[in-house]
Amino acid sequence: MATIHDVARLAKVSIATVSRVMSGADPVNPKTQQRVMEAMEQLNYTPNGLARNLRSLKTNVIIALVPDIKNPFFSEVIRGIEDGAREAGFHVLVGSTDGDREKAKAYMALLEESRADGLILTTAQMDQAFIEDFAARRPMVLACEYIAGSEIPCVSIDNESAARKITKHLLALGHTRIAHIMGPSNVVLSQARLNGYKQALREHGMPEDELLVQEGDFSIESGYAVAKKLLSIERLPTAIFAASDVMAIGALRAIHDHGLRVPDDIAVAGFDDINMASYVSPALTTIHQPRYEIGQRSVQMLVKLMKAEELGQAQVVLEDTMIIRESSGKGHEEKG
Questions:
Q1: Rounded CA gap, 192 and 179, in Å?
Q2: Among 26, 90, 133, 239, which has the highest number of CB atoms less than 10 A from its own CB?
């Protein structure tokens, strides 16, 4: 017996497109619709009326996708999502994509098949056109990240401003060679933090040195490996700003293994303020993100979307705080 997957494969469209043709609820390109109808006829496919009715029911399940479940940054975000969902009467299915776009799309297909009611995406590591199309058809909120120029609802901090602030802190301490360990170049917030770093250098009349900007992947291993690379160049950096605390902690170990001291020889700063940041030695200067609130607010927005209620503010930017600790010198907290 032919299935909807068979129809989609023969018509060379997505399962979602086949569903839209069958329901008639959303407009479909006439040529595409004709192709789907011909595939259904060729396969003698008859939609199951009972299954259609079952799929129209609410599941009270939302999906939260994270790029790496091992990354401690996401634990507090997920806690906020779970608490917010529970208050609204929803269960949460957490999926780790490991940076694999196909894994993410497989989870997102659960919404297309109506096995879940909404989606919270904590990283937009997919084609923008795909995400925009999905968000136009299904309830979805971006948490921690955003897409420039997009109207997709999101909750985040101003990553560019925060990165500029912490780089300016290092500059104010007299550092003239500040290296940056950025996150994956295909991640929006990686680019935003890189931009903030570069803006701070320009504002202080400091030249950009391409050797001082190296790409990691937000893992502790990449922080260690990239820091080792930075420590091998002829003119060592006097400070390292890593785009995540996890990478900064890897850098701390690399500097220690190189026989240097933090912050006496090289200052280090991170980003996120994960719980571990205040317990490593030396304690890490960083940007505090309100991770729990990001998770909670993203669920509140998603519930409104699922109920077709007015959002009011679709792009929510929460306040970050710069936490200055021993890795760059003790000081104060600066809100932003």
A1: 16
A2: 239
- Residue 97 near residue 103 (C-beta atoms within 8 A): yes
Query: What pLDDT digit, counting tens, does each position of 10-29 carry?
Result: 999 877 788 778 766 567 78
Amino acid at 150: S
Query: What is the number of other CB atoms lying within 10 angstroms of the CB of residue 257?
Result: 12
Q: In whole angstroms, how large is the CA radius of gyration of the chain?
A: 23
How far is the C-alpha of 167 from the C-alpha of 6, rounded, in Å?
54
Residue ranges, the chain, pLDDT below 50:
49-56, 331-333
Cβ 197 vs Cβ 164: under 8 Å? yes
Nearest C-alpha neighbor of 268 from the set 258, 276, 281: 281
- Which amino acid makes up residue 211? L
Nearest to 153 by CA among 25, 299, 336: 299
Model pTM score? 0.80
Q: Which helix (H) or strand (E) holds 201?
A: helix 188-203
Question: Which residue type, as a one-letter code, is found at position 62?
Answer: I
- With contact defined as beta carbons under 8 Å apart, do 70 and 274 qualify? no
d(C-alpha 218, C-alpha 44), whole Å? 49
Q: How far apart are the first and last CA of the chain?
A: 59
What whole-number distance in Å separates Cα of residue 159 and Cα of residue 224?
A: 23
Kindly state the DSSP code that residue 275 receives in the 8-state scheme: G
